[in-house]
Design goal:
Quinone Oxidoreductase, Chain A, domain 1; about 30% helix; 16 strands; Rossmann fold; oxidoreductase; about 325 residues
Amino acid sequence: MKAVGLYKYLPIEAEESFLDVTLETPKPSGHDILVQVQAISVNPVDTKQRAPKDKVETTPRILGWDAVGIITEIGEEVELFQVGDAVYYAGDVTRQGSYTEFQLVDERLAGPKPKNLSIEEAAAMPLTLITAWEALFDRIRLIPDADAGKSILIINGAGGVGSIATQIAVWAGLEVITTASRDETVNWCKEQGATHIINHREALLPQLKALGFANVDYILCLHNTDAYWDTMQEIIAPEGHICSIVELEKPVTMSLIKDKSVTVSYEFMFTRSKYDTPDKVRQHDILTKAAHLFENGFLKSTWNQTLQPMNAATIKEAHRIIESGKSIGKLVVKGFE
């Protein structure tokens, strides 16, 4: 089978940063399904996994953690799907990824592809959708409808996670404030349903106060936790909750966090698969629930760009775009020649 892989971890401009390779098609066993990949999405985690380091692989490493495709074979323990089913998933960061014609994935990490979405629209969603859903409902522990009317600030609203997190928070009944600065990102955030948009290049608290917010009940930080830490301590409400997907890189003070009895948590969507947690089927449940929300018009895909065909040159271009930091929504790659 055709695939795009790497042996060395290099800057994207390097000739061998990605290579076209041929691999043996794997066979499923246990809870694994074998998926013929139709399209994939490229995420910041892809570029972080490829980031330059001295390690050299003896066999090609295949990246990629977003895909849509058709099941062609199943393992003997599979119960959730059948051959021929269309699925979408983000997979497992510890296994070979989706830059390939056929991929093995645990059925408990996959969901039925939303029937109303194209393959591009569906491929764009799993990783960011699961990240946003887990952050809002598993970490912050929002309760749809019961928490209606409460406020959430989403830092980096135009990114992949921020875009779908905005939609999910609106569906749950929250008043959503996002950050954006360029005209195109402001307009994008409005399209996702944000109630208010503030400029991340300016002090956030004065802008919130001008909108009538003394503080916010929840914060979802999707960019540079270090840079926003002190500001988040200021603007979070007493007994509020801050969730971030970006690790802190240096020590920080937590005096206001303690004083306000604020909860702070992290979200990493690969935790369940990486540590084989007993509740890993939760990701199947999330993707299944979201499929219904897509099909009933409560959510829409954040797909915004497609590159093709699937080969090393195209994957290099996709990584260049993601590393620029200026992409809006999600970038999809499809179609081996």
